[in-house]
Amino acid sequence: MSDWEPSASIETLRARAQLLARVRSFFAERDVLEVETPMLGQGGSTDVHLASLSAEARTPAGRQRLWLQTSPEFHMKRLLAAGSGAIFQLAKSFRDGEVGGRHNIEFTMLEWYRPGFSLTALMDETAALIHAILPPSVLSKPQGAPKRYAYRELFHTHLDVDPFTTSLARLRRLAAERGFMPAHALDDEPRDTCLDLLMSMVIEPTLGQGELSAVVDYPASQAALARRHRDRHGDWVASRFELYLNGVELANGYDELIDPAEQRARFEADNAERREVGFNEVDVDTRLVAALEHGLPEGSGVALGIDRLIQLALGKPRLSDVISFDTTRC
Amino acid sequence: MANYSTNEFKGGLKVMLDGDPCSIVENELVKPGKGQAFNRVKLRNLMTGRVGERTFKSGESLEGADVMELEMEYLYTDGDMWYFMQTDGSFEQYAVEKKALGDDEKWLKEQVPYTVTLWNDNAIQITPPNFIALEVTETDPGLKGDTAQGGSKPATLSSGAVVRVPLFINEGEVLKVDTRTGDYVSRA
């Protein structure tokens, strides 16, 4: 295949268009408003593990750095604060360096927000959307509410350790051993890096075989922009879920953080960590904080990698098979 | 040599790992929904030929390895070293140690072109052509009229390799053999 040609076949792009039309009708039936928000924003994601791309632009303010959004979250929350009600978006999003069988630097995120929804209600709706898109043959088991697993329980089952209480030294050894790293490679790494490695290498591939699985109650340190609550062991956990199908992470949902002071503190903590590990700081979206001060309705939101869902629906081995021009030929 | 970051890792890239030159076979980005990204990499150690798996934090880098693959004809051996000559018209010769030949010593035949892998200008590995024609130097007498039956017997070839051949093959015949599997293919 010469590299002027699309990475996806025209036939696949037709099927993709049909699936996207089905997404739009799913939300139309539920009275969720489609919105479009900027791909370029004056603020970016401070998340230490997301690398933002930026562009220099000439604006009324002079030369200004604008950030390509890693997800449409901040702008959509500002719409919610302005009284939009339930909204969804198919948003081009950008994450530097992320290229592979399930990643592309530029990709399409399906993100939606449901004021007044509990995390469980949104999880069920996300499953309903996935079931509406996937042909029945992809799911070998009956389609119901996703099976739920607590993060802690998964580590007990697969690795016989408790992610909250096991000593850091033991986690580092275990993660290096099970993660194909040399014995002391993780000796300076924080707890979350060890947990991320074990989750990615050992646990994820087993999740959602022929059915949707939900992981809930992540450690509080992995809350991102979700609220926190105490689990039944008394540990702080993130009010978050992730949905998996056939070992592929499809969606990431939050009971959304609405406290502006907490939001500002998390941005600042992210940038402090960025300074510590030598990454560039990212301009904080002060307007999001202002929107939260104005008042964000309580509710839940979810981001779903629609390219991955299309990939699973069409049985394509690589993400590039369902994207018109992937990063290597864009 | 240049350093390569995990997002530049792709099949065929030669890098140094734990002091040995390696060739990248496969590189896959793995990332939990939120959190640290990793690259799960399969590498072939060019000194041992073994393929192993190693995980890197995304953004880590490895030093490139000065590795080249050149086509060379096998010339002769003096018992200590095996001599090869470049086929690009330069007639440049390289001496290869037994260690670098490994099991492939049994596929050496004069004037046949091999792929010779050089690391810092030293030969570390040879790769024979996928198929090679070699003469049978020793085997039990052929059984006439036995062509239909599926039986086989060992035959020693001129290069020293021993392969299983059909019962009807005789000494002095030239056979086409698959060097990757060591299987008899046909009469050449």
What is the β-strand count of chain B? 16
The N- and C-terminal alpha carbons of chain A lie at a distance of 14 Å
Strand content of chain A: 15-25%
Order of helices and strands of chain B: EEEEEEEEEHEEEEEEE
Mean pLDDT of chain A: 95
Strand order of the largest sheet of chain B: 9-8-7-10-11
Main sheet of chain B?
Answer: 5 strands, antiparallel
> Would you tell me the structural class of the helices and strands of chain B?
mainly beta
**Could you tell me the mean pLDDT of chain B?**
92
Range of helix content of chain B:
under 10%
Pfam families (chain B): EFP, EFP_N, Elong-fact-P_C
Subcellular location (chain B): Cytoplasm
Main location (chain B): cytoplasm
Protein name (chain B): Elongation factor P
Folded structure, characterized:
The complex is a heterodimer of chains A (330) and B (188). Chain A is α+β, with helices and mostly antiparallel strands and 330 residues long. Chain A has a domain at 10-143 and 265-322: Bira Bifunctional Protein, Domain 2 (BirA Bifunctional Protein, domain 2, 2-Layer Sandwich). Chain A is 34% helix and 22% strand. Chain A has 9 helices and 12 strands. Chain A has helices at 10-29, 73-81, 119-133, 151-159, 168-178, 191-203, 260-277, 286-294, 306-314; strands at 33-34, 40-41, 54-59, 62-68, 87-94, 106-115, 147-150, 213-219, 228-230, 236-245, 248-255, 299-305. In chain A, strands 1, 5, 6, 7, 8, 9, 10, 11 and 12 form a 9-stranded mixed β-sheet that branches. In chain A, a hairpin with a 2-residue loop joins β3 (54-59) and β4. In chain A, α7 (260-277) packs antiparallel against α8. Chain A is globular. With 188 residues, chain B is an all-beta fold. Chain B folds into 3 domains: 3-63, SH3 type barrels, CATH 2.30.30.30; 67-127, Nucleic acid-binding proteins (OB fold (Dihydrolipoamide Acetyltransferase, E2P)), CATH 2.40.50.140; 131-187, Nucleic acid-binding proteins (OB fold (Dihydrolipoamide Acetyltransferase, E2P)), CATH 2.40.50.140. Chain B is 2% helix and 54% strand. Chain B has one helix at 98-101; strands spanning 3-5, 14-17, 20-30, 38-45, 51-57, 61-63, 67-77, 81-86, 93-97, 113-119, 122-127, 131-139, 152-157, 162-166, 174-178, 183-187. A 5-stranded antiparallel β-sheet of chain B has the order 9-8-7-10-11. The longest helix of chain B is centred in the middle third of the chain and has 4 residues, at 98-101. Chain B is elongated. The mean pLDDT of chain B is 92. Classes of the chains: A alpha+beta (330), B mainly beta (188). The interface between A and B is medium-sized, with 28 and 21 residues.
